[in-house]
Specification:
Layout: H1 3-20, E1 26-34, H2 41-52, E2 61-67, E3 70-73, E4 79-81, E5 97-101, E6 105-112
């Protein structure tokens, strides 16, 4: 379960950012997660709530936005959604594909007091 290690990294970022801004409580953490990361949101939420216990983020809610995997063919320029990790252009059938989105893992915003 790689979600626990990711939850720890998110908590580290959140606590450092909150401390840098003099926050005493973190209420909301907004995350952008690409679908290619294969993170299970429920597992991430469980891991985060476990790790955040006893910190200023212990009651914070995670708002997770999943970003779809998108690719662009380097041969014909077609942009498309990558489904089931099939990196093949639906137009020209080339396998020369650049990934435009879907690998993100970002703490996008925090709501603090």
């Amino acid at each position: 379960m790689h979600e626990m290690a990711i939850a720890q990294s998110i908590l580290d970022i959140v606590l450092q950012t909150a401390a840098d801004h003099g926050a005493t409580r973190v209420s909301t953490i907004k995350l952008l997660i690409g679908e290619m990361t294969q993170i299970v949101p429920q597992s991430l939420e469980f891991g985060f709530s476990t790790l955040a216990a006893g910190t200023i983020a212990q009651h914070a809610s995670l708002q997770i936005k999943i970003l779809p995997a998108q690719g662009k063919c380097t041969q014909c320029g077609c942009q498309f959604y990558i489904k089931c990790f099939k990196f093949r252009c639906p137009e020209c059938h080339s396998d020369s594909i650049g990934v435009l989105s879907g690998r993100e893992l970002l703490v996008d915003a925090l709501e603090v007091e």
